[in-house]
## 1
Amino acid sequence: MSPSRQIWDQRDYLEERRLSVRVTLIQVLFGAVMAVYLMTFWYLQVVRADYYRRLSDSNHLRRVTLIPHRGLIADAEDRPLAGNRIAFNVRLDREKAGDPSALLPTLGRVLGMGEQTLRERLSRYRSRPSFEPVVLKEDVDLREVAYIESRRLELPMLSVGIESRRDYPHGALAAHVLGYVGEVSEEQVRKDVQGEFDLGDVVGRAGIERQYDPALRGAKGWKEVVVNSHGREMQEVGEGRQPNPGRALRLTIDLDLQAALEEAYGEEQGSAVFLDPSSGAVLAMISRPAYDPNVFARRFSQDVWQTLVGDPRHPLQDRVSLSKFAPGSVFKIVMAIAALEEGVAGPGRIDHCNGSYRFGEKVFQCWGIRKGGHGWIGLREAIIQSCNVYFYRLGNEMGIERVAKWGRLMGFGSPTGIDLPHEEGGTVPDPDWKRRAVPRDPTWHPGETISVSIGQGALEVTPLQMAVFASILANGGTVHRPHIVRSREAREGVEEGAGDEAVVRTLTLQPSTLALIKDAMWGVVNEAGTGVRARIEGHDVCAKTGTAQVYRVSRDIDADKLPKDKRDHAWFVGFAPRDNPQIAWAVFVQNGGHGGTVGAPIARAVLERFFAKRDLTGGSVRVAGAPALR
Amino acid sequence: MLQARRHFGSFDWVLLLAALAMSIIGLVVIYSATSGTPSSGAFERQVAWLGLGMLALVVVLAIDYHTLSEFSYVFYGLGIVLLVLTLIFGRVVNASKSWIGLGTLQFQPSELVKIATILMVAAYLGREKVRGLGFANFAAVSAIVGVPVLLILQQPDLGTAVTFLPLLAGACFLAGIRVRTLVILALIVALTLPIVWGHLKPYQKERVKIFLEPTRDPKGAGYQLIQSLIAVGSGGVAGKGFLSGTQGQLQFLPEQHTDFILAVLAEERGFIGSGLVLALYFVMFYRCVATARAARDRLGSFLAMGVACVYGGQSLLNIGVVLGILPTTGVPLPLMSYGGSCLVSSLIGLGLVLNVWMRRLVN
């Protein structure tokens, strides 16, 4: 072996050794990284396993709220007034849409909508997770559903969703009784400590829908679902909780009477209530102008809402329980009762009317039927002829305290307690009230008593209070709390049959007083009084007309030629039949002129329907005793 | 003849069985990860690829690695041509032109070029009986590795390109790179990097930034990272069970049957499963190293170590991404991930190692 070969071999050997060392180094490096990885796996899968398990669960488990069906609302004979129907919405799946703003022109063309509207609807969902579809167009008809469905291939991002929607089959009928529903307000959600509401929930916003919202709404359920990374539901897990459907409500409203009232009321503005005097049950109730509650059931009702709120005629205002007006001559009945019960005047008191009444510096007019006034006139005739002078003098003799006392006993000045969300109490003025309410002129002037005596001045009542007053006269002194929902359980949370219908108080009136009042009111309609247009042969309608002054007119101006909004408000308040009355009412027509002219025919139309129905069923149409729903 | 029989008798069954076990585990996880997803059918295709890969392994095993080494220029040259053709005629998948089709058969030439490059580097360094790696040698090795890497970067397929780097680093280290060369290299990199960075377009810079810091892109790389960690961690010790991993089954995990297949396994099989997989990779790497030590010549050693560096490095890269230790690169896990090209290439690589082991005692 040559030395060079030997050296070569030695170098070779050394190189082999070095190579071996380097191989070992690489091996150690690999082993070390593997060891780090193993420890990382151990840390993630053993030490932190619970933490990641929770993350994994919240990743794929989602709690889905199940919305119950809203309770139905039916009339006294179970005919639906408010229900639910299926509505189809066109929805955009943002996960399939890519950049939705690039799609807007196409979508606008397909859906027949403006790009601006679409953009606004999209922007509402900006903060929502992208698997949640955007409702672009709601409540489309079947033709449009078919159009969208048949374009699944071209427009895979569009789909048709189904949702339950509140439906009022009779449109604007009894709108202010039923109210309407809408999405829960953000404030309601914020104040909701029990977690009952989620944004987007539908709740009652007015009327019965609002008053009985907890019962109608039912209880939400939930289920837990497994979702994939796109948020699509894959399967349900476990039981969850079924939603508890909303309670159905049966109203005391009789659809037939309501329809008759709606038709008879025509284009007038104002309100009317018909009550069952034996229970306070509301048989029909109208407020005009009305609105169609169906428009609020839509998701995008903002513009409609603005239109209704901005309407100078205030269609949303419930003129039955929220609007207050002077009772006018109807208050003369209260005056008569007060005088008789307080013994200020006997039934036989007669007085002389020469057309005006001078009190101090001021002259109060009688209404201008003929020059020279009513002459010598008794109490009954004074009611029938609605003689102002007779009651001016009576009021002056009685004094405001006694007038106010009887006004309050008859239910004026405080809310009736009807099952509606809001109610006004009105005003029965007296010196006490004036001190509190009019600080710049706190003393009561005797002249004000004169005004109140004929139902003017600061006196303010709601049409509902007037109807309750009529039913007190009808039933002989029982003040009922009026109500719209029939079942007491739903109304007050008490078992059915646990005592009488809510009686606020019972007045003990002398039979002679009642007899005189009834006789006088019968005379208003059946003799040559102011309410002859409500006369129905054989049914002894009793009523009193009233006029609330809007604009002081001198007797030379023909009131019928005034512009509509300057005309007086008209009242027509009464009950029927005279003996054993079964219906009591107050009809109020804003700027209607005279109660006998516009109010009486409206009442008459409802009464005709009422009596026709009663005669058909061969007896009473009283609803109070009938079995309640559920 | 007698010797030849003896060589076959000393076949490295451990490495082969570990590779087979790994591939079969991969198949099971692919089945679980793709059942009920749009990628179903992947399992059947992968079974076919496994068969093809085993066939290739046997072919590579049958030819003496010295013969293969002699033709390494041809393989390498063919590989470069394929890469160029891919750039011209390739099919674009995931915004990267890295696929080429022969009829219905689709594969990534870059995976096969790995083998050709390993062969080429081993052939070059196996012949050099010099102590240490001079700058010229280093430049040559860099060129051998650099040409395919640059071509692959053109596709652009950063992940596959990165898997070539362990080969360059490992080969230079084993050949004994001089400290002087390393210093010069470091200087060159330090000087050119700012210039290169300055010439990058803003979107390219953004990509590099996201690569280094995935949380910059919470919907892309950051999302993958979080979902991968949830999958691994929620598996616990024993796992959620076959077909029961919610992260994988419900597609929260992206690339669940390719780059993140280990996360699916970790979720369904728990720490026991992931530990087993790590053990199998360690065994395979260990057998490759043992082959390199036992090889009868430098060529054999460099071949075995080349395969160990490329596929071992790729495994470490993939697992590091799954564990959130390394930035997301889009590198498949050898033998386990879905993808025929990678599986076949890994099996050919192991075939080379088995080849060296089998012929370690022949003169």
## 2
Amino acid sequence: MRELRVTPIKNGTVIDHIPAGLALKVLKILGIGDSVTSTVTVAMHVPSQAMGWKDIVKVEDRELAAREIDKIALIAPSATVNVIRNYNVAEKRRLTLPDRAIGILRCANPNCISNVREPIESTFVVRSKNPLRVVCKYCDRELEDIVAHIL
Amino acid sequence: MSAFRGRDVLSIRDLSRADIQLVLRAARKMVPIAVGEKRSRALEGKILSTIFYEPSTRTRLSFESAMARLGGRVLGFSSAEGTSVQKGETLADTIRMVEAYSDAIVLRHPQEGAARLAADFTEKPVINAGDGAGQHPTQTLQDLYTIWDERGSFEGQNVVLVGDLKYGRTVHSLAYALAELGSHLTFVSPPTLEMPTEILEHVKERGLSFRVAHGLEEVVRDADVLYVTRIQKERFPDPQEYEKVAGSYRIEMDLLRDAKRGLIVMHPLPRVTEIAPDVDRTKHAVYFKQAFNGVPVRMALLDLILGGGA
């Protein structure tokens, strides 16, 4: 039997096929920092037939919210998200880059109306998916560093 | 019913070529009413709110004049002082309140994207009268009207945009629209204040050639339109450097000696020293007429949006 670098988990989520080097950004999106209550396994620079190299993140006892999956889609549209229940893949979630990113990015323009106290969610229109280019619906400015502006 | 009825005007990019031409033709018909030769009651019984979070005499007064000339009424405020805004009311709430009092809303706000936000919170048409460094579509329509009225068309016209092309929002919207309308564009600015690449890309996408120059002398001879903007002192850390740069983009009689007879010189005003006062007396100077044109253009827009049928 092939030796597994990362052991299977009983319940939780496996995010696989993350482009090599982006695992830590995925952790940032999931808010995994000091106050984690379950085990998180990160494998970086793992050989992959399809991608050459990839990263993997496994989070035990946690299933991701739709908004978290949308955020991951922004930085790693090629990733796969599998929900594990009792050691089995219970669900495969498809990552789809939406036409609009709502409530997941902050506009970099300090003078944009979306950055002041108004009852709205930030909204970015996806201009191009590859390379990813997004433009603020309100101030019409393109967001340069997308990862740094994930909410 | 016009395609404009009830429509928001938030950015010049929301208007197609046909939309722009419709507004310009309607504006021409408004001139006799705008100068008081003819009377109109086309918008009688209609109320326009002018919600100005920052002062802008020219834009506000031209909207108010436009509405009054068509028999409509205006209410609103000309600065946030003394209003519920100062108590911390959100723009969204202010708009929902104003919606109940009027048939259309004109908004000027210091923050970019404010007009689009406002439009999301009301069914009534919203006209953007400037949002921070963002859009100011009625200024662009006014500029386009002036070019069309003076030169007869857009296609093939050599339009030279001069001054601060990096930060000046009027020149961005104007360049965008002129590219849509088929004019040849020349951009003249100091190297540090050049037109943003996204605008240049748009011009290229329209299949039009353009020129980028740093000196005026080389381009004035072929120009049909010279659109001059102010170079702001605060863009330069060194006051001496500012004096030098601003001086080299000043329009003076000498510069116009070899210009075409039909050349028009435009400026969104207020000007400081960009155009020498003796140029005012030449046939080239159209900037005061350009300022007047704000009234018929805004009349046309209000009439189309509110369905007056003037």
